[in-house]
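Teaching assistant's notes for section 4

Start the section by putting this record on the projector. Ask students to predict, before seeing the second block, whether histidine kinase will look compact or extended. Collect guesses on the board.
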Amino acid sequence: MNLSKIYTIKKEKQYLWVLLTLVVFVLGCFFFKEFINYKIVALILLLVVSIHAMFFDIKPTILSAVISALSWNFLFIPPVFTFHISNPEDFLMFIMYFAVALINAVLLFKVKKFEEKAREKEEKEKTLQLYNTLLNSLSHELRTPISTIIGSTDILNEYHDKISLENKNLLLQEIQIAGIKLNHHVENLLNMSRLESELLIPKLEWCDLNEELFRIIKNNFQNNPRIEFHINDSLPICKIDIGFLEQIVINIIKNALIYTPENKKIHIDINQTNNILQLSFQDFGNGIPEEHLPNIFDKFFRVPQTITGGTGLGLSIVKGFVDALNGKIEVKNTTPNGLKFDIFVPVETTFINNLKNE
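Reveal the predicted structure now:
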């Protein structure tokens, strides 16, 4: 058990819980004192104090130790109903009980503090590692489009009258492509920040998913011939957050284009059954080793010994938006090769005739 786990209870309520549990155990032992030796009662009450020390702050725990010791003396140590202890052995046992209860409380409290500091240190180291990973990734991924934009604009400014119109158009095209890449990286960082804030609330609206997916692919991938979207004519009108859907589709396709050979295609299928929307993305690349599948949605994760490219945020952003839609995402290697993502999202559906009547 993790001793650093303290219930999120206000200190006033901790005192109340200490008193209530002690009353229950003390009265329980008192009613059965004919069957329980008073020395056994000491062990039971010491266990209660130990439990208090595991879950409560130091002051309520010390109060537990004091009250339990006095209760044990008054109700169980002969002569009962008095704080007088006639037997020297019982007096020594009482002193030992009180000392053990206090030492137990203090030691467990220090252990909790130590674990808390260790956990904070571990979290800081993890944050620093992620920060360094992000900086290293961004320094590489952002440097290329920024250098392209600066270099192309310098050439246009310096040799504006000397270069041909065709070369000018090529330079402008390079600037546009670099700008799109730069915008994609910035969007991913902003999306990750939004997801980690846990303030994303889906704005659901009725839409034709065939049309929306076609629009997303056309606007972001210029009808790339490597992308095959299979339209489902039997699909009903669905209620979904189109912005979330767009981020999911863009990031999965971009990831697939990076890791799928140029001569291979990416298939996109869409289905709906029992108000569950299923989006499937199948590529025909090399897949990834099975041992890395559980980590594929982790931030900044890249499969070792693969091509460079991307910040390692794309798939974690996909999972974040799928979670925000109360959906789930599955990934698996396919036969003979390739990787398949299946996304399942609960949606409200209707057919066009019903929608017109609303």
